[in-house]
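Exercise 7b. C-alpha cells:
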C-alpha cells in the first residue's frame, strides 16, 4: 500500500503490533543434509506459532534482486525500497547517534584483510573486536584531506563510519567493497560529474589509510560502501498514527529506525535484554520493531551449523515475545542469507502473522517450504505494514 493511502486510512486504537525481524532468516538446502537451516533447526515454538497463524513468503525488493539490509527493512516498515533509497553510511551514522548534517557525505567502512598482492582474503578482517577497531580508527584520524573535515567513528566489530564534511561534496559514488574475496578493491568512481571531487578525496583517504594499516596482521585494508547524504523520508509515526519504538543491538538497525522516525532504544546488550526492554516499554508504544541479528552473521560467514544454532536461539525467545500479549505479532526477515552462499540472496523470505482478527492456514511448521504453501502466498514485503495495521483494526474502510 502506498504511504499516502496509509496516511488517509490510518486510525489509532489501543492495539499493539510486534514485528520481529530475524535478520537473514531464509536459507537453502545444505549439500549434505538436503535441508535448509530452518529445516535442520529445532524450532518448536515457531512451529507452534505457525500452526496458529497465517503464513507466506515476502519478496523484499523484486524477484531476483538481492537486497541490502537497508531496503529489506524499509520494505517491512512500509516504504517502497525502489522509491525510498538510503546509503549504508547514513544508517550507520544515525545508529551511533552521530549528528549528520545535510551537506555531509557518509559511508560505511569495513576493516578487511589483504594479501601481499592486494587481494581481499577476508572482507570483515575476522570480525575483529570493537576495541581493536576503535584503536585503528584513532590512527586513521591522523589523515588530512584538502578543503574538508574528515570524521571517523567506530561502530561495532570491524565496522566504522567515514564522514566528509565541507562545501561542494556530493554522493553518487561507487563502492570499493566488491562483496567477494579474491579480488582487489576497486577505486571509487563518480557516477555523475559533480561528484568527481568527492571521489578524488575518498581515493586519497584510502591511499593514506592503506599506508597506515600496512603492518597490521589482520585489519590491513579498508572497504567503503553506501556513500550517501541524509534523505528526507515521511515519518512512520505521522502516516501510521502509531507511536513506534525500535529495539536492536546493532547500531545500523537503530539508524534505520531513527531514519523513519521511530524512537530507538539504546544499542548494545543482547537479544534477551532487548526483549526485556520491549516489555519495560510496553505502555509507551503501539508498534514495536524487535531485531535479531545472529542468524544473518552466521549466514554471511558461510557457517551452516552456527546459523542453525542462531535460529534455535531465537526460537527460545519466542514464548517470552508471545507472552507480551501483542494483538498482532509477526515474524519476518529482511532478506535471506543462505550459509551455502555466504551472502544475502534474492530468495523469498518466510513470514507469519498472528492475530485475533487473522485467519489460520494449514501451515504447521516455520520453514521455507511450509510457508510456500501458506495462505498469504508470495507477496511484496512493503505490504507487511498495511497487513499488520489491518489485523490490528487500525485501517478505516477505503471509499464510499
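Sequence design result:
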Amino acid at each position: 500500500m502506498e504511504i499516502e493511502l496509509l496516511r488517509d486510512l490510518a486510525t489509532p486504537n489501543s492495539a499493539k503490533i510486534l514485528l520481529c525481524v530475524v535478520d537473514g532468516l531464509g536459507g537453502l538446502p545444505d549439500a549434505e543434509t538436503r535441508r535448509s537451516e530452518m529445516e535442520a533447526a529445532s524450532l518448536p515454538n515457531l512451529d507452534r506459532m505457525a500452526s496458529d497463524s497465517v503464513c507466506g513468503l515476502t519478496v523484499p525488493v523484486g524477484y531476483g534482486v538481492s537486497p541490502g539490509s537497508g531496503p529489506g527493512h524499509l520494505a517491512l516498515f512500509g516504504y517502497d525500497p525502489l522509491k525510498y533509497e538510503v546509503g549504508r553510511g547514513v544508517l550507520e551514522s544515525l545508529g551511533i547517534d552521530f549528528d549528520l548534517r545535510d551537506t555531509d557525505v557518509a559511508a560505511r567502512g569495513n576493516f578487511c584483510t589483504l594479501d601481499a598482492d592486494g587481494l581481499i582474503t577476508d572482507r570483515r578482517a575476522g570480525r575483529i573486536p570493537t576495541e581493536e577497531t576503535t584503536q585503528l580508527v584513532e590512527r586513521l584520524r591522523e589523515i588530512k584531506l584538502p578543503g574538508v573535515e574528515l570524521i571517523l567513528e567506530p561502530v561495532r566489530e570491524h565496522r566504522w563510519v567515514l564522514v566528509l564534511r565541507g562545501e561542494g561534496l556530493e554522493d553518487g559514488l561507487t563502492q570499493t567493497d566488491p562483496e567477494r574475496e579474491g579480488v582487489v578493491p576497486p577505486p571509487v568512481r563518480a557516477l555523475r560529474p559533480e561528484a568527481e571531487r568527492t571521489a578524488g578525496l575518498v581515493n586519497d583517504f584510502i591511499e593514506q589509510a592503506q599506508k597506515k594499516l600496512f603492518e597490521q596482521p589482520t585489519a590491513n585494508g579498508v572497504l567503503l560502501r553506501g556513500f550517501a547524504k541524509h534523505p528526507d523520508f515521511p515519518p512512520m509515526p505521522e502516516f501510521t498514527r502509531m507511536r513506534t519504538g525500535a529495539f536492536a543491538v546493532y547500531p545500523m538497525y537503530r539508524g534505520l529506525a531513527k531514519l523513519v522516525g521511530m524512537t530507538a532504544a539504546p544499542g548494545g546488550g543482547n537479544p534477551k535484554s532487548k526483549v526485556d526492554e520491549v516489555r519495560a516499554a510496553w505502555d509507551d508504544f503501539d508498534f514495536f520493531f524487535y531485531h535479531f541479528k545472529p542468524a544473518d552473521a552466521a549466514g554471511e560467514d558461510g557457517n551452516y551449523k552456527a546459523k542453525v544454532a542462531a535460529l534455535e536461539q531465537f526460537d527460545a525467545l519466542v514464548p517470552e515475545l508471545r507472552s507480551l500479549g501483542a494483538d498482532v505479532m509477526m515474524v519476518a526477515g529482511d532478506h535471506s542469507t543462505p550459509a551455502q552462499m555466504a551472502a544475502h540472496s534474492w530468495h523469498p523470505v518466510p513470514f507469519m502473522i498472528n492475530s485475533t482478527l487473522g485467519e489460520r492456514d494449514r501451515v504447521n511448521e516455520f520453514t521455507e517450504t511450509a510457508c510456500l504453501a501458506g495462505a498469504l502466498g508470495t507477496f511484496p514485503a512493503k505490504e507487511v505494514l498495511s497487513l499488520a495495521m489491518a489485523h490490528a483494526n487500525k485501517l478505516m474502510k477505503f471509499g464510499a
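Instructor comment: The chain has 14 helices and 13 strands. The chain has a mean pLDDT of 95.
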